[in-house]
Amino acid sequence: TEHYKHPLKDLKLQVPIKDIMSQLMSAVVFMQEKNVVHLDIAPENVFLIKKDSGIVVKLTNFEYALKMHSEKVRVDSFNSKSSESGFTPHEALSHKYAYKHSDCWSLGRVLTHLMTSKGCMKEVPRKGKKLQDPYSVDINKMIKNNSNNNILCKDLLLKLLVIDCNLRIKAKEAMKHPFFWSAQETVYFIVEIAIM
Prior knowledge:
With 196 residues, the chain is an alpha+beta fold. It is built from 7 helices and 9 strands, in the order E-H-E-E-E-E-E-H-E-H-E-E-H-H-H-H. Helix 3 packs antiparallel against helix 5.
């Protein structure tokens, strides 16, 4: 049973960032397998639903979603709130095209939002409500400390927030990134490296 919903932008529930991002990336992988691009993944379109079994992440608002019939699809009109804050994929705004993996930019911006909201990173400088330049995110300046989690997060962000979408990591690849590894997987990896 659903108990209550919280939009991600409010962040009232204490949920590990890895859990939120893992479920959100799973949703994007599913959409990519169905050749759908969302184009409006932003905190106001992500809900955390508390259930008896735990927290479930739901992606909403498919108003700008497109079915991909080719490698890229033209984006004719785009007037999303998230376009003002840098959540909209760069190529959708500047080149008026969307690609199958365009949503990975938005995943990077959501991860940035979560890290800044949780106090792990410094907030990107703002002018009013808009980012000064939402597409020039200096990840190095955002990292407050060099904890293992922040270093892995920084590495993942550097792969998600690539302007050239052909060089950007795909959601399926991103889900295998060490940022999402369990403690056991990390220890196993370190032991394997030590044995070599």
